[in-house]
Amino acid sequence: MTDTLRDTMLRHAKEWTDDDLRDIVTGLREQRARWNAEQSVGSLKRASSNKIAVKAKPKTISSVMKVTL
Amino acid sequence: MKFYNPLTDSFPESQSSKWDIPLWQELEVHENSSFLPGTAFQFAWDSVSMGNLRRCPRKYWFENVLGYRLDPMPIALHFGIAYHTCMEVWHKLQAHGLDPEIAHLRIIRLAGLLGEFFNSTDTARTKETLIRAVSWYIDSHSPDNAETVKLTNGDPAVELSFQLPIAEVNGIEILLCGHIDRVVDFMGEIYPTDYKTTKLAFGKDFIRQFKPNVQTTGYVTAGWILAHEGGLFPSPPAGMLIDAIQLGVNFARYQRFTIPFYEDEIQHFIDDYQAWVETALRYSELNRWPANEHACTDYGGCPFLPVCEQHPKKHEKMLNQHYVKSTWDPRKSR
Prior knowledge:
The complex is a heterodimer of chains A (about 70) and B (about 325). Chain A is mostly helical and about 70 residues long. Chain A has three helices and two strands; from the N terminus they run βααβα. By secondary structure, chain B is an alpha+beta fold. In chain B, the strands form three sheets. In chain B, strands 3, 5, 6, 7, 8, 9 and 10 form a seven-stranded mixed beta sheet that branches. In chain B, strands 1-2 form a two-stranded antiparallel sheet. In chain B, strands 4-11 form a two-stranded antiparallel sheet. Chain B is globular and about 60 Å long.
């Protein structure tokens, strides 16, 4: 499972861990770099926050196991 | 949770230090100390009240004398206040000596907390766009070529409240009041600065709104007075520096504009100020605040337009039903 920058920012700010905060800053820097790159070539392409991956969460059993009864 | 302390990264329920930042503003209704007691005559003026008086005396009467405003406040204003708060705290943390990367993380949390109180469908003014605008500003202005001036007591010149005698009307001392975001040394000159967020692209129309302008001229005038009376400003300001931020749904763009001012323009502004306050005195003596119908639809429409559209007998009922009371007192320091 990969969180996007938008997913992380949508969570309550009080609950953000230091890692979350670093992920947000890193994600925003990547977004800024992408947006600057698009601007420099005269592109109107957007660098949306839901297209910036911020981290790969460790897989849990429930996320990979299909439940069968 | 009512406050956030960015120095300790904690969430106090009450304010016990200057670092406890309120996350929302309670509506405050109290006697307005900017008016002569028992009268509708204002002797301490800021750009908001002076701007309202000049735009439409009826609007000034509703908002500044009677103390009504819309609730919730317009999102452009709410977003602007939140952005100002983040920038003020950022510069103070910098001056305090907190590691810049740690300070950056704390400001991101502050922006997130403040942005969670936005109540609007404006997609360019959201929690996400506030966080981005603040974070990209920090990155794109590090190092900053505008250096915050230090006060004589060593504090950074950030969010400076001033109340300065500027004129006299009928023997009453008139005060010029305001809150300057930051005073900077920019390319060897001193400037008061103000953050301005907009959804518009930066062009001639954007820049032209800052001169003539009652706020920018007022801040430069304050700077001149403070420089000549000794103290805060090391030299008279060369003008005003606008730290502009264009907000998009997926981006933020920054540009700085210097607006030059000259000494004779300052005196001209003071003379105009006195004339306007004399006009306000006249209105208060007549107890008549005429509407300026030419301004009703400016800037997307006056917030009191629905009131003025009604028969005057219905004004009071409309105000009480659709607006809240909140005292705007220019003498109150932030």
